[in-house]
Structures are given as structure tokens and as C-alpha cells.
């Protein structure tokens, strides 16, 4: 499979924010994909209109791996305290798979992490027409400990 043969999944997005985030994540993973090292990239949009990128970094010890969304969140927080509005992640296919990159939702750990730092963030979900959905819809019973003040609950 040649990298240039893999179509950009942003083409299926009708929402312009979703399209831009998916396109940005796809470009990163298309350019940085390494089998068993980097297979997902993420893009986070902040309230100032900037996009911050992250790359999945795998590890021999699974827990030491870093998800792309966590990398994008960290990249955003390095340069701004602006609110984070939306996130998208794209997985690049392995050489043994059909040549289709795909939008992927955040894993459970990243859902918790993103909601800790951006309680109103929306996520691009895959589907016939990829769409932005409030992340808290995917994690309605988020863990709330005593480390930080509890976020307001939805009524």
C-alpha cells in the first residue's frame, strides 16, 4: 500500500470544523505513521481558532503508551489556556488492512482526560456522515473525585 493511495476521511465530513480537524489529524498520521509505533493522530481546536496536534506513541509496555488525544491536549496546554472546543482522531491502516484511514472516537481514558480539561468539548464521531457530538454524551457518568471541584452537572 502506498501512503498516497489512502484517501482522507475528511472528505465525508459535512461540518466544516469536523472536516478541518479530521484533515489535520489525517495529514499528521499519513506523514508520521510507523507500524507498531504511531498509528493514530489527533487534532484539537481551541477557542482562539488554533489547531493543536498529537501523535499516538506506542510502547513495549502498553501502559507507557500515549494516546494521540493526550498528546494534542498537552500540545494545546503548552501554548494556550483558551478553552478547547473540539477534537478528532484518525487511525491509519496497517499494511495488511484495506487502505482506508478512519475516524476513531477517544478511548475511555482519553474521554476522562479530555473532560477533566475541557468539560464542554465536542468529538468527531465516525459514521455515514461524521459529526461533532458533545463528549459528555459518550461518558455520561464521568468519574468525579475530590482532587478538583466537581464540574456542573447537566439537568
UniProtKB/TrEMBL annotation:
Q: Which domain of life is it from?
A: Bacteria
InterPro entries, from UniProt?
Cytidine_deaminase-like
Which named protein is this?
Cytidine deaminase
Q: Which organism is it from?
A: Streptomyces polychromogenes
